Amino acid sequence: MNRDISILIAGGDMRQIYCARRLSGDMKIGLAGFDDEFIPMDMLGSRADISAKGCYDCAVLPVVPLNGSDMLSTPCSRTGLRPEYIRDMLRPGGLILAGKADDRLRRLFPENELLEYMSREELCLKNAVPTAEGAVQAALEELPVTLNGMRVLIVGMGRIGTALAAILKGFGADITAAVRNERGAAKARLAGIKSVYTDHIRAEYGLVFNTVPGLVFGRDKLAEFGSRTLFIDLASKPGGIDFEAARELGIKTVWALGLPGRTAPVTAGEMIAETVIEMLSERSDIP
Amino acid sequence: MNRDISILIAGGDMRQIYCARRLSGDMKIGLAGFDDEFIPMDMLGSRADISAKGCYDCAVLPVVPLNGSDMLSTPCSRTGLRPEYIRDMLRPGGLILAGKADDRLRRLFPENELLEYMSREELCLKNAVPTAEGAVQAALEELPVTLNGMRVLIVGMGRIGTALAAILKGFGADITAAVRNERGAAKARLAGIKSVYTDHIRAEYGLVFNTVPGLVFGRDKLAEFGSRTLFIDLASKPGGIDFEAARELGIKTVWALGLPGRTAPVTAGEMIAETVIEMLSERSDIP
Amino acid sequence: MNRDISILIAGGDMRQIYCARRLSGDMKIGLAGFDDEFIPMDMLGSRADISAKGCYDCAVLPVVPLNGSDMLSTPCSRTGLRPEYIRDMLRPGGLILAGKADDRLRRLFPENELLEYMSREELCLKNAVPTAEGAVQAALEELPVTLNGMRVLIVGMGRIGTALAAILKGFGADITAAVRNERGAAKARLAGIKSVYTDHIRAEYGLVFNTVPGLVFGRDKLAEFGSRTLFIDLASKPGGIDFEAARELGIKTVWALGLPGRTAPVTAGEMIAETVIEMLSERSDIP
Amino acid sequence: MNRDISILIAGGDMRQIYCARRLSGDMKIGLAGFDDEFIPMDMLGSRADISAKGCYDCAVLPVVPLNGSDMLSTPCSRTGLRPEYIRDMLRPGGLILAGKADDRLRRLFPENELLEYMSREELCLKNAVPTAEGAVQAALEELPVTLNGMRVLIVGMGRIGTALAAILKGFGADITAAVRNERGAAKARLAGIKSVYTDHIRAEYGLVFNTVPGLVFGRDKLAEFGSRTLFIDLASKPGGIDFEAARELGIKTVWALGLPGRTAPVTAGEMIAETVIEMLSERSDIP
User: Fold this and answer.
1) Nearest-CA residue of chain D relative to A175?
2) In this predicted complex, what is the ipTM?
């Protein structure tokens, strides 16, 4: 990669800072949207330079780029970061990489090509690892018993379910996967665990990880389980658990979103950097 | 499933007999292309009845349906099985399920709908398990050393590579995956093993499993490894190893094709049966 | 077991309450040294009854029975618990079970037989599980990176080291055991991991678990590692790390004592109960 | 180690040849009791030299040193090897290392100190690895189904049982340990598997590994299981299975003795060599 390429890392949580650190080995970096107290000492010199206005080839925006008021999401800064700033700093037609790019974002940057790094399969695969580790950490923190010997249900045998199965096997948990079809059952077999069809789940687990977005645990199903079971939901909104009902039934739930950024920001940031490098290397227009 | 449906299991190896046994719980079965000595006692009564001519709803053909002379593949019979026989036994327009259906097969059964059970993803996923177990069995048989502590390379992190990784981790092998891109590297990470790019493989492994079809180990690469390494190729023709060169270099290779049928015929047959049931249940024309 | 046997659970942390709950299925229980707010609702009826004075067959004291001023250790009570109370409640010659019984304890109960439940091998084996889980939880909490792919050193391949190895393998960590002799190396091999002799440890690990009591990581060795490595010490006092030097060198250390009681009190309490039942069942003098 | 020490490797199977090869890096080697066709080309020069009569410091005898007629056990030679030969080749008072040394052996070598390398704990621990791998290989060869998903019973959680559990977990088997006390149950928990008391074993397993020497599976218990279960016995004579009854009941059994030497002779031989080196290094009388 041409070391003369320059990238603006604008907004986001600690992941973006570690992403920037990793990128700084291969290209020129400018950090924006981070108060100094969040920037590691050795990266203070990488703050974006306003004199480089109009010079950045590319901007890397957060995983969830915008907050509710069309400003960049900047949890590591007391001041806001406006889209205009990014437009000003980029060279005309500069590329924008964001975790997800919805219509709102596209309207804010009509002149720029937008690419989504979170739609890259390799990043989703890699992200499953810190997500699963974070989910297991949550279980260890919330449970007064060992995972060893515990009956655990994993709903969904996609990437995260598969990663969870591997980790929980090491703990000596007694694991079952809830699946929706023979394909899911085959994946459970490959992971070396038992499986049950989702509509035949019985209330016999002390710990349930949900990884599928649709509602799996409604009020009636939750009532069967009762307060002895911990539910950890890893699915994006609206999640697979009726949280309202769970609260009323006294059932403990953890809705674990954005785990990679919270429990393993260095690894998660480096994964984003690796994907950014891959995405840029596939383009002929990047010097 | 309607228990009145009748299926002709015609030709194939022991897998097809165990497939038939499993199906016999759900439907009427007729076995053809198996000499009596291969048929378990309790299934002798399920031999196809010539008086049922024109009555079978469906025929299940072998994974590789035809031999070189356009006869059904019948390794468990001294006499041949001609396509005409199957056409005669099926009801008009009866369905045919074969592992793979090429043009040759289609020309032999122009009046019948042909479906391929080996193109079903759930069967490919399930088959990875007996394939990986058979490959590990081959390694145990061929090697005068333990897998424990051995440096093992798995080329390709698809289904079979992933299944191999899980098993070999249990043995305490020191495993590396050879991958072609970041997606493969991410899959190795998910499987909890190291990875290396395929074009950077170094000759430092005592055991190599190849799972990808293109040539990975040509003469020069094999010469680097030398006769201390065992190569097990699981890829379909032409395989990933230059076997000719390997022989000349005194390098031990195992080309392990059709493992599920050889090392775990009961499991492999039941997997085919499960897929057949699934495929029939998706059809509205099956009673 | 005779259900008429009565046991006084006196002092200790939450483990002892869960131990009591488990014992309450098999015998009569009296709780002392716990303020009401720590006692689960369904066990409030099991508080020791002063009218049962002189009637208890046996007392179960905490893992570490005494505090610095010769009172029972009662972290779940604002008021103290004096040895006299226990002497009064026990029948003459009643049995006392404590985690460890030192001379100080023996002098306080000269008329009673004292047995140590923590010297039972089965309890030490069982305790290794919550200890290892707690140690991994600490690592997950302290590290900003994933355990997946991390180079981890486990010093000592006793029970806890072996339990750690099994869990960390599930995470896909790259694990090495530091051992002192061929016996340790053989245990590492059995656990499916690499080993290195303790005096040849190199500073190449991001995470170090110490399980052996003698000093392994002195100032010089720590300086080699530097602040990039997290040290978790599971050995009882004085531990295997020069904590003073680590602090001066800016190296992060966690001294994780009493993990079972803190991270999995229910499991740890039930393990004590199982051992108490086993110890009582071996005695002919217990009714 | 002084490279001038000379060792006579006398008799035994292929293990002893690989033991000799490994030792040849550290000391002078003489091979006796092997016909040339069994000796690898590069070791033909290491055949014992009759002119070195009376000069060998030490003799390494086989794991089971004697055959029924008081000759050395020499399965790799058509001619016998008499004890006198060894006495002649050793220097006066030379040391003898044998796998096991019984009274018969001691009577044949009254002038020599005899040490047993198979009583060294590190070698027993190490040997558990090739033993477990060989047992799993036998299961893979005998079973027409996959280990994945199979209910497996391991009787005994000593070294071999523990090694088996680790390997079988990788296969995705559903494993239970049969144990005799809480210590065994604790070891199963540490290995991350379920346990059942030996006298409560139910006939619900497709595969049983026995590792304990006393009779566990008598005629009545075997009859409960029936011919659907494969029994693999790893215990030394008389083993834990009533083989006579099993044969009559049509139950398949494998009595797998001496597995390390058969399935992984190189690894097993190197393990003996490592132990021999260790034993010699502990002695002050060896130069």
Assistant:
1) D174
2) 0.91
